[in-house]
Write a structure and sequence with these properties.
It is built from 1 helix and 11 strands, in the order βββαββββββββ. By secondary structure, it is mostly beta strands. Strands 2, 4, 5, 6, 9, 10 and 11 form a 7-stranded mixed β-sheet that branches. A 4-stranded antiparallel β-sheet has the order 1-3-8-7. The protein is globular, with a radius of gyration of 13 Å.
Length: about 120
Amino acid sequence: QVQLVESGGGLVQAGGSLRLSCAASRSIFSTYAMAWYRQVPGKQRDLVAHITIGDSTKYADSVQGRFTISRDNAKNTVYLQMNSLKPEDTAVYYCAAVRITFGITTSDYWGQGTQVTVSS
């Protein structure tokens, strides 16, 4: 059974930091690139960052320089380190196993989401 389980969300003041974790089943983690998305009510789910099996990364412009995605192959876990958080980073963050084809990211599996709230 495919599972992606996120943790690490919470409430933080603007300027603070949080680290999200996503534990994946081995079959998924060894096959897929991994990504973090976020969604606020009434808006589409947006890609925040992705990391390939070869550790190539890509970030949304809005988080470039503040967020870092990484993966630990021994633990089948992907992380999102979020620094210098802003109120506009408030969202539900989702982990996903993705395919990247000709620069297009397609999500095959999703986690349940974790809430991140940044207070001003």
